[in-house]
Amino acid sequence: RDLSPDDKWKKIIAEVKEEYLNPLQKYPWIIGFSGGKDSTLLVQAVFEAVLSITPSKRTRPVHIVSNDTLVESPLVLEHLEICMQKINEAILSIGLPFWVAKTKPDIGNTFWTLLIGKGYPSPNQTMRWCTDRLKVQPTSTYIKKNISSSGAAIVLLGVRRDESQSRARSIQKHQNIRGGRLSPHDSLRGAYIYRPIVNLTTCDVWELLLMYDAPWGGNHSSLIKLYKDAEGGECPIMLSAEDAPACGSRFGCWTCTVIEKDKSLQGFVDSGRTEYGMLIEFRDWLKDIRNQPAMRQALRRNGKLTFGAAGNHVPGPFTIKARKQILQRLLNLQSSVGQKLISEDEIEIIHKQWAKELQIVKGVANE
User: Fold this and answer.
1) In 3D, which of 319, 323, 270, 327 has the Cα closest to residue 294?
2) Are strands 306-307 and 313-314 parallel, antiparallel or unpaired?
3) Comparing C-alpha atoms, which of 25, 31, 68 is closest to residue 159?
4) CA 236 to CA 112: how far, in whole Å?
5) Which of the residues 16, 109, 147, 326 could staple to 190 if both were Cys, CB 3.0 to 4.6 A apart?
6) The whole model's pTM is what?
7) Is residue 66 classed as helix, strand or coil in its secondary structure?
8) Distances from the Cα of 24 to the Cαs of 18, 21, 27, 180, 188, in angstroms?
9) Residues 116-137: tens digit of each pLDDT
10) Percent of the chain with pLDDT over 90
11) Do residues 208 and 9 lie in contact, with contact meaning Cβ atoms separated by under 8 Å?
12) What is the model's pLDDT at position 90?
């Protein structure tokens, strides 16, 4: 017979507890936390499982790691930061061996330093340079540090089979080790994947979030409102390029030009946050100028003229003039919405990059 959501939940808690106490490996757990429904339920499962264990046996370290691309949807980022603060306060109060961390891209690899500084064209399906630099690399670096200090690490992900066909195929491809609950990570040697809520349906997740309050305090009403307003879903923690197709129709970067229309951001506008309409307009403009010849250099960054298989010219990065225009529009937008959209450090790196490129052009012209 089919288990009720409550019975499924009790089974998950029991399995997480059993895995936490597994005497064969005591590697640290790293939870990918996006603040969305699935990762929230995952953190709740780990909390409840560990709280049911005798304090003297709570020896395995647990890292709750979020990823800030620095171009997150403002309302989603606000929700995530409040959650992380509450979780951290609960950890300190209870004395759990948990740590809260946030990963960010290196300052030279942010969305703006690459797009405005180096002129990378707005990302699209065939050139999605953003995913690896903003999401995969920062999180992978954090995991690698724990692997090097502990010999291995186990990454807990709130992925489920019924999210999408591509997600189900990905889960099926990564078979668990010898009938256990762990599967080896594709590209991170010494990392293993554990998916505690893999068999829950979307309905199960929502029902459980409504049934059980957060063990770090309060209920999930703000999370439910966030989804209701956006009519979307979270952009999950990513550990490899093949996770990228899951990103787009969900809460993600407000600058995302890979998708045709940002439904979640439009949902926020429709629910009363009209100031975010300006973010949508800017994002649409970034998408439109990508293929305008006047905005792109003829030569690629390697100094070569490139043609595709069909003989078509493949343009290079945005011109310096175009980059200056993008930066000015971004600064105007930042002033209009009253929120920080680009840091002073990024602007400094951008100007240095422009100066470097202009110096090279000047040097070539003088030869």
Assistant:
1) 319
2) antiparallel
3) 31
4) 21
5) 147
6) 0.86
7) strand
8) 11, 9, 9, 12, 21
9) 999 999 999 888 999 999 999 9
10) 67
11) yes
12) 97
